[in-house]
TrEMBL record:
Organism in which the protein naturally occurs: Xiphophorus couchianus
The UniProt record lists the keyword rRNA-binding: no
Molecular function (Gene Ontology), one example: GTPase activity
SUPFAM superfamilies listed in its UniProt record: P-loop containing nucleoside triphosphate hydrolases
Keywords of the record: GTP-binding, Nucleotide-binding
InterPro entries assigned: P-loop_NTPase, Small_GTPase_ARF, Small_GTPase_ARF/SAR
Protein name: Uncharacterized protein
Length: 71
């Protein structure tokens, strides 16, 4: 997985679990599992979203902004 590369150790990773308005969209938990994120040491966050309505987009970007400002 790309995320284990040493030079990316401190890079925060934001994942959008998009298309949550569609019944077959993968859930946040499914995506977390599929990407094996619980074993990833760098900061990561999976935000559910719907790009069509905009739901979740600001929340995800707020998280990323907070991570960057922390450095
Ligand atoms: N219903 C729904 N459709 C979406 C959402 N986000 C994107 N789409 C639609 O998905 C289609 C593909 O979007 P693109 O921006 O081209 O994304 P892509 O990565 O090329 O393709 P995907 O594999 O569909 O993500 C477009 O018709 C978008 O309008 C969403 O949250 N809900």
């Amino acid at each position: 997985l790309l995320l284990v590369q040493d030079e990316l150790r401190d890079v925060p990773v934001l994942v959008f679990a998009n298309k949550q308005d569609l019944p077959r969209a993968m859930s946040v938990d499914d995506i977390t599992e599929a990407l094996s994120l619980s074993g990833v040491r760098q900061p990561w966050f999976v935000q559910s979203s719907c790009a069509v309505s905009g739901a979740g987009l600001v929340e995800g970007l707020d998280w990323l902004s907070d991570q960057i400002l922390k450095k």
